[in-house]
Structures are given as structure tokens and as C-alpha cells.
Amino acid sequence: MAPSLNMIPRDIAWNQVSGGGAWALNCDWVGGDLSNAKVSGDQCGSKCATTTGCTHFTWTNANGGTCWMKTGPVTASQAIAKNNDGAVCGYSKSDSGSSINWNNAADGGYWALNCDWTGGDIANAQVSGEQCGSKCATTSGCTHFTWTSASGGTCWMKGGNVSKGQAFATTKDSAVCGAVSGTAPTQTSNDPPKTTDPSSPGQTITSAWGAPPAGATRFPIIECDRTKTCYKRNTFLSPAWNFPATVQESGDMSMGLGRFYLVDPNGSIYKQFNLNNRQIVFNVDVSGVKCGQNSALYFSSMAPNVGSEYCDGQGSCMEMDIFEGNIAGTQFTTHECRSRGQVAGNQCNHDGCSAGSNTKYSDKVGPNSYINSLKPFKITTKFYTEGNSDNGALKSIVQIFEQDGKYFQTGDVNGGSCTTQWGGVPQMGVGQADGMTLILSFWEGSMDWLDGGFGNGKCNSAIGGQSQAAKYSQIRVEPIA
Which pLDDT does position 350 carry in this prediction? Predict the structure, then answer.
């Protein structure tokens, strides 16, 4: 029973919670509506739990945020994907291992029909159901598995300690789940699973907010680990300089001219990120950012202590531009330096190694284009490493735009497209491994390199005119999907 290493994404990444419930992002339930309430996403699960008859729920950001409470028996396999309105769904009581008919092996392993485990995926292989258990047993790190009939038969190998009570019943794709010998339950099947997962969607895992730096505003982001558990980090946005901006504790912000740094929850250092073998995802709205203006989300190797002197790839430290854009053009760029940390002299790639010129004049991104810059869109930037390892050298960066079910990949920055004069993409990975600070900025000037100026028909003029807000929301850093 149970998996070659073609990493096929699972449908919905469930996060289990104490007491047997679970929640996930980007999902919904069909029917069963009981009532609704105007509450935030992190209150929806508890609202359901205290509402008579509510067994499961969906929260969306429609109408300012609505929790749809639902009733009736459900299993995780009945949820459907929903990639709009910031949807979150969950159920208050798991259809748990107690309803699964387990087959116990003499060596301590066990398996059952019609069941699955949440998260923990480490690899998969195209094998028959009868081979899945033995495939897991011979795969380093595999402790439990699920086999499904998807793609002709796929064995999903998983890592971490589990108990029977953590499995959930599902009839989807003829699922078979089990655990191999040597992974006997760490708790009895009658005990609720012990977990550090959020007890409801979006609940913070970190400690209480620290003392913010002067002028800083609460601005949480989401980080997910390799068990597909997501955490809401109590971070702050601290202005370096700015005209009026709106920063919300919901994780939404809009800004005019200015620059902001993301500060760690303790309030004393800039939050540090290593993007190698990960992806960063966010929503952006540049409909009011004209030609001659630049709205940017990027990372810098500036010193991490709050108040440290700013630096970037135009000066003395590495810079990873995830997004520079306006209504007519977008670009992502590496600015690597020959040495780590802050450097002296002309040791950084000022021009950068970029992917974006194929979007400036094409019909893919722009006003009323395939990706319509008059509306918000989502950007996912993936940082691939050698061996798909956190410790592997960075080898390739790709970026994907998404809007209304449409996708567009802007390009691939890699060893073949990026000069080795400054160390290339692997050197950018070295800088990222040391930790980098997330920065949001908005500035204006000569932007022909970004939007083409008068030469681009998408530009009403080569100058920006009156500044309009750039908007960012739902920033997430997570394992590559």
C-alpha cells in the first residue's frame, strides 16, 4: 500500500486542531447554511462552536467579512476549492479515527480503507495500493502514508509521529491510509490530538504583540511550515519615511510615496526571511500607480537591528526585488553582491538580473490585458534550490501572476539567463540564507526601464502625476507548492 518523486499538490491543506476539528484556506462547503454573522476570520470557528446546530463553517471577506455557519455531517473530502473572497473553511468535529476500521500488523504497523492524514507530505510515487506501505517503509523519514487512485494510483509518503485518532474518514479517490512499523501511536486513540496548530483560522501562534518601534503599526503576515500548518506572525510595519498610509491589523495596507520595513514581533529587529526553497505569495493592486511611478515589494540584506542604516543593490548590500510595478509594467530582479553583508566599493550588480521585459509591451499584463492591472492580482514567486533542499544552492526563480482563474508566468531567472560576474543566482541564494528584511516602497522618477515611458501605449503619460495608493494584502511565505 502507499509512493517516484513527482510532487503532485494535494487538494486542500487541512490544519488539525485540538478536539478533532480542522480548518483550511481557499475552500468552501456546498449547502448546509444555518446562519451567518459579521465576524473576522479568526472568530468564525469559535462562532460556529457556540452556535446551536453548527457543525462546519466558511468565512469569506465579502461584505466586510462574513462567517457562514452550516449544519449536517461532513468529512474533509466534501470540501471544495474556492480561490476567491479570501475563503476559509473548517469543521468543528473531526470524523476521526474512531470510525475507521483499522487492520493491525504484528510489527506495530496498521492500515485501513477510506481514510487519510492531514499534511506531513514528504514525497510521492506512482505505485499500486498494495505497494504503498512497503514504499513508505523503505523511504527515509516516512512514518505514515496515504494511497489514492488519483493519477493512476499515487502513494503519498508522510513524516512525523501520528496516532490512529489523527486520521480522518474519506471515500474520495478510494483512499487507503496507514502507518509503518516503528511508528506506534504516541497517544491512545481516545485522546484528542496534541497540536500547536491554530485553534481557529488565522489565530496567532506567536506570543502577544511586543512593544512596537516608534511610529510602527501592527501588520501581520502568514508563514507556513512543511506540515502545511500556517501561523499568523505578529509583525509590525515601521516607516522609514512616508506620506499618509493606511496599515491595518488585518494584514492589508495602502500607501503613497514612502518606504516601510517589516519588524519582528519583539519590536527590536527587522523580521528576517530566507526564501530559498520557498515561495512568497501576496495580492497587489497597482491600478492607481501610473507610469513614472514604482510600487515595490523587495528584500534587503541590511543589518537587522531596528534603526539600522538602509542599503540595497544600488549601494552596498544584496537586494531581491520581488515586485516592482505600475499600471503598465512589472519586473522582478536579483541584485547580488560579490560578498555577504554590507560591502564597500563597486561590488554589487546595480543593473540586476531580471525577468519582466516580456511583460512590458506584451498583451499579458496591463490595463484590460490578460492580467488586468486595473484590478488586484496575486503574485507567487518561487525560489528553487538544488535537490529541492533548504540547504541547496539557489538555481532558479520563477514568478506567476494569477487573476480570476487565469495564470501567467513572467519568466525564469536562472544560471542560463543571469551573468556570473557577480555570482549569479546562487550568490543571491547565499544572501537570502543569511536572512533579509522585507521592505515595501513607493517612489517616482524616470521609469522607462520599467514601463517604457512614451514608447509604451499603455502609458497615458511618462510621468506619474498625482500619486494614488498602492495596495498589498495577504502576504505569505510558505514551502513551494
Answer: 84
